[in-house]
Amino acid sequence: MFAKDHVAYEALPLPDRAELSDAQMLAEARAFYDHLKRRHSVREFCDRPVAREVIEECVRAAGTAPSGANHQPWHFVAIANPEIKHKIRLEAEEEERRFYEGGGGDEWLKALEPIGTNEEKPHLDLAPWLIVVFGQRWGQFDDGTRFKNYYVPESVGIATGFLIAALHRAGLTALTHTPNPMKFLNGLLQRPDSEKPTMIIAVGHPAANATVPRVAKIKKPMEQILTVAE
User: Fold this and answer.
1) How many domains does the chain fold into?
2) Separation between Cα atoms, residue 148 and residue 159, nearest integer Å
3) Distance CA 162, CA 65 (A)
């Protein structure tokens, strides 16, 4: 964490260490892949509630992510209030309507056709929780003095990945949503100008009739996502 007063470097012995054999490492890597490949983004949620404590623990996991200079430049707003969720839906659909009416451009709209999305976002009402992710472009001390945060998009992206993985580990479905622009979220959620909303994540349990696009099950093969230099 960044402090106004000087904080000297102090080395601590590594507090946690994994001592796995080569075979155990490979087994753990494969098990984690098998777990993550069962993660799916769905747009149909049921009304089964999710305890606040579960959301809090998933956000706690996200907060362990590495960040530039350890500034941890993120803030998460978890919303269960139906009125606030509905306001977010109305604002988001207005932005999405402009996008699907041509603002997104022909190429982008064509790319979305196999996903089956449109300007209607009922999941923003139906999901028991919405988590809005903010990136803190700069920090501020109690006296109003600003300080710079570093690698904010990268740091927030890593933390968001941790969050999605934690939600999946908890047995929940998470759907990412990025209306553009999202500035309305600052005013609605009373977040400062120093923070930039990056994503809305709808969280809950899938409905009995939940579906996924067929194309979403097609993942790039290893040779297209990995180059090894030995």
Assistant:
1) 1
2) 19
3) 7
Give buried/exposed letters for 54-66 (b at 16+ CB in 10 A, else e). bbeebbebbeebe
Q: Please answer whether residues 48 and 205 qualify as being in contact, where contact means their C-beta atoms are separated by less than 8 angstroms.
A: yes
- Tell me the whole-structure pTM to 2 decimals: 0.94
Q: What is the pLDDT of residues 178-208, one digit of tens each?
A: 988 899 999 999 999 999 999 999 999 999 9
Question: Which residue range forms the structural domain that includes residue 101?
Answer: 41-225
Tokens representing residue 52 in the block:
């606040």
Flag whether 11 is in a domain: no
* pLDDT of 1: 61
Q: Is the pLDDT of residue 211 over 90?
A: yes
User: In 16-133, which residue ranges form alpha helices assigned H by DSSP?
Assistant: 22-36, 52-62, 82-98, 106-112, 123-126
> What is the domain-level CATH number for residue 111?
3.40.109.10
230: number of CA atoms within 13 Å, CB side? 2
**From residue 220, how far is each of 168, 174, 215 by CA, in Å?**
21, 21, 11
Does any domain span residue 15? no
The DSSP symbol for 211 reads -
User: For residue 104, what are its two tokens?
Assistant: 């997104």
Question: Is 66 within a domain?
Answer: yes
pLDDT at 6 (0 to 100): 77
209 located within any domain: yes
Span 122-134, pLDDT tens digits: 999 999 999 999 9
